[in-house]
Each structure stands twice: as C-alpha cells, then as structure tokens.
C-alpha cells in the first residue's frame, strides 16, 4: 500500500488529453440521443420506476445483494405473501434514487446534506459521515488493504465541503461535465465518507449530476451494469489514479460506460415506447375504460395490483378488479396469486426488461 493523502479539487493538471477529447465526442453524441429518446415517451415518469428498478437490481448486485427480476417486482407490490431481505434492500436503492432526484429537482444543487439523506434512505440508518476510525478498502481476493480513506471526521467533512463546491460551482473547473462526473466519482469514493453504501450512493450521484447539468432530463442512465461487467477494471483504475496519477484510463473507462449504456438504453427505451403504443391502440380500441392513467400504470409497474389501479385511476376496488380481471381474461396481463393477494403481470414488458442485454 502506498502512502497517499487525498487532495482537494479542482485538479491542478490538465487531464483532457487527445484521447479523452475524442472519446468525449462519441459519449456526448450517444447521451444526447438518449435524452431525445426519453423526451419522446408520452409519460416519461414511468421510466424512472421501470428502469430505476433495473438499476436498483444491478447496482445492488455490485454489493453482492443478488435478486431476480421476479423478486424486485414482487417486492414492489408489498403483498403479505412475499418476504425477501435482498429485495427490500433493492427497494431501498430505488427510493434513495427517487429521493435524490426529488432533492435536485427542488433545490437545483446537490449538497452534503442531500448526499447524507440519499445514503440514509439507502441504508435506512442515520449514521451520517464516519466518526469512528477503522475503515479501509481491501482487495476482495487477498484481503490486503489497498487504500485507507481519511479517518478523521473533520477531515471527511472538510473534503466533502470541497466536493460539494466542486459539484455545484461550475466555475471551479472548465473541464467537460462528463470528465467532471468521473472526477467526482473518484473523489467521492476516495473520501468514502460513510460506513457503508459509498459505492451505491456514488453511483446515484453520477446520474443526478447528469440531470443537474441538463445532459438528461430524467435519471435514466445507469452505469452499474457496465461496472458489473468490468468490475475488476473498475477497482483497478480507481486505484491507479491514486497510485500513479493515471487519470486518462479512468476517465476513458467512465466515458466508455456512458457511451455503451446510453446506446443500450436507447434500444431498451425504443422497445418500451413501441410496446406502449401497441398497448395504447389495443386498449383504446377494445376497452371503454381505456385511459392514459391505466396505460401508464401498466408500464410503471411491470407487476401491478388492484390497489395501484384504484389509486392511479381514482376508482373503487371493485372497478379496479374488474378492469384487471378482464385484461387478464383477454391475455393482455397474466394474473398470478401471491399469499392472499393477486397481481397482474405485463408479460410483454417483462420480456423486454428481462431479455435485455
Ligand atoms: N481502491 C479503491 N479506491 C477508491 N474507491 C474504491 C476502491 N475500492 C473500492 N472503492 C469504492 O468503494 C465502493 C464500495 O464501498 P461500500 O462498500 O461502502 O459501498 P457499497 O455501496 O456498500 O458497495 P458496492 O459499491 O460494492 O455496491 C466501491 O463501489 C468503489 O466505488
């Protein structure tokens, strides 16, 4: 382990090398296209839930909290018959993501306290920044300590205050926003301000930063799947910045993740969009009770239930049950039983979500 002291931002050297500038062009192009595709969906908010659940699953998997799609959609139903601790943790991730989005939408800035609220929603505790020393980052295979983050509470607060400034004050550095996102992620993970949840909170900060800088309107670019697929490199490159000041590779890694995931998400959203239109026509032409709210409900909740319909459509329980049962009878939804309750699966949507790369 090298002796390393984490410095404050901004960086004093220029890290926008030729390779980085070249990669920035293609990453931005893909991201801009994603922003456009998202805007073309009639009710974009459904995507936060549907894609957010995917991300919650992937991001939690990096922390070895493994669930299936079936489990996370079941957990969202909150029915008595289903208990899974891991799925509950995944639910906490999505509420932390939504909370973060709400905070930046309202306040337009991402403060230290916002970050604490996000982590607290994720971990369901109020521990805040680390106060007791002893945290060290270890190599998962050998158990060897690779990096000791700041141990002292005042130092952590000081570095987080500096990071807060860097996140919110664009004049502190004229690097491209995607380069800044990579720097912010490195810096946050290196401060490692919490006892737990630093990785997941850091991944939420990434997407919020994109929204704050108008690179996206909604938090729908999730890098976790890329990180899972390139996990060893992820840890190695973070460590290389520290050990050899090798920023270029780290920045290129993040830019490549933005480009690849943008492209994949464009395909996914396009498929969802086509299915929304298919269902819209199908429902509008065949059911008197068609409404935009009903359509949105079926896409916001890949597994839906009577109470969701009651609430979203403002109808009685009996009416909601009648609608869902009719759609199930016509094979538009699949009715399943869980404990004493029923739920209804949008099978075509599930196919898109689960067959997705
Ligand atoms: N050598 C390193 N340098 C900087 N950051 C590191 C290093 N090794 C790990 N990290 C960061 O620490 C995170 C893990 O921290 P922590 O266990 O608190 O978070 P988590 O959300 O619970 O876990 P995970 O990221 O595995 O989901 C990693 O995701 C990574 O971002």
Q: What would you say about this model in short?
A:
Helices cover 64% and strands 5% of the residues. It is mainly α and 357 residues long. It has two domains: 18-26 and 42-258, Fido-like domain (Fic-like fold), CATH 1.10.3290; 287-353, Arc Repressor Mutant, subunit A (Orthogonal Bundle).
Describe the structure.
It is an enzyme of class 2 (transferase). Its EC number is 2.7.7.-. Pfam families: Fic, Fic_N, SoFic-like_C. Residues 110-256 form the Fido domain. This protein is mainly α and 357 residues long. It folds into two domains: 18-26 and 42-258, Orthogonal Bundle (Fic-like fold), CATH 1.10.3290.10; 287-353, Orthogonal Bundle (Arc Repressor Mutant, subunit A). It is built from 15 helices and five strands. The strands form two sheets. It has a three-stranded antiparallel sheet with strand order 3-5-4. A hairpin with a 2-residue loop joins strand 4 (334-338) and strand 5. The two termini are 37 Å apart.
What are the salient characteristics of this protein?
Arc Repressor Mutant, subunit A; Fic-like fold; two-stranded antiparallel sheet; transferase; 2 domains; mainly alpha; ATP binding; 357 residues; EC 2.7.7.-; 3-stranded antiparallel β-sheet; binds adenosine-5'-triphosphate
Corresponding CATH superfamily of the largest domain: Fido-like domain
Instruction: State the helical fraction.
Output: 55-70%
| Small ligands present | adenosine-5'-triphosphate
Global mean pLDDT: 94
Described by the principal axes of the CA atoms, the overall outline is: globular
User: Based on the structure, what is the oligomeric state of the protein chains?
Assistant: single chain
SSE class? mainly alpha
**Number of strand segments:** 5
């Amino acid at each position: 382990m090298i002796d390393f002291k984490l410095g404050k931002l901004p960086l004093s050297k220029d890290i926008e090398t030729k390779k980085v500038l070249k990669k920035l062009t293609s990453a931005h192009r893909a991201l801009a296209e994603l922003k456009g595709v998202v805007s073309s969906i009639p009710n974009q908010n459904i995507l936060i839930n549907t894609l957010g659940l995917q991300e919650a699953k992937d991001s939690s998997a990096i922390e070895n909290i493994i669930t299936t799609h079936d489990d996370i959609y079941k957990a969202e139903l909150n029915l008595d018959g289903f208990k899974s601790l891991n799925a509950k943790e995944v639910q906490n991730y999505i509420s932390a993501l939504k909370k973060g989005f709400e905070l930046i939408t309202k306040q337009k800035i991402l403060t230290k306290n916002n970050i604490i609220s996000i982590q607290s929603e994720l971990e369901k505790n109020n521990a805040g920044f680390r106060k007791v020393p002893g945290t060290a980052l270890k190599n998962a295979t050998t158990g060897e300590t690779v990096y000791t983050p700041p141990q002292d509470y005042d130092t952590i607060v000081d570095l987080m205050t500096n990071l807060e400034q860097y996140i919110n004050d664009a004049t502190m550095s004229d690097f491209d926003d995607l380069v800044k996102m990579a720097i912010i992620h490195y810096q946050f993970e290196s401060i490692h301000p919490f006892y737990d949840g630093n990785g997941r909170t850091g991944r939420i900060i990434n997407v919020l930063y994109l929204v704050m800088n108008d690179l996206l309107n909604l938090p729908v670019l999730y890098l976790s799947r890329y990180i899972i697929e390139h996990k060893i490199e992820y840890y190695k490159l973070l460590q290389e910045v520290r050990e050899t000041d090798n920023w270029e590779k780290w920045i290129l890694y993040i830019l490549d993740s933005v480009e690849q995931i943008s492209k994949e998400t464009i395909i996914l959203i396009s498929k969802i969009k086509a299915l929304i239109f298919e269902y819209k026509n199908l429902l509008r032409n065949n059911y008197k009770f068609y409404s935009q709210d009903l359509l949105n409900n079926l896409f916001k909740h890949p597994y839906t239930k009577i109470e969701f319909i009651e609430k979203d459509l403002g109808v009685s329980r009996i009416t909601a049950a009648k609608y869902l049962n009719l759609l199930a009878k016509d094979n538009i939804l699949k009715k399943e039983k869980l404990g004493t309750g029923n739920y209804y699966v949008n099978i075509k949507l599930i196919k898109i979500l689960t067959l997705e790369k």
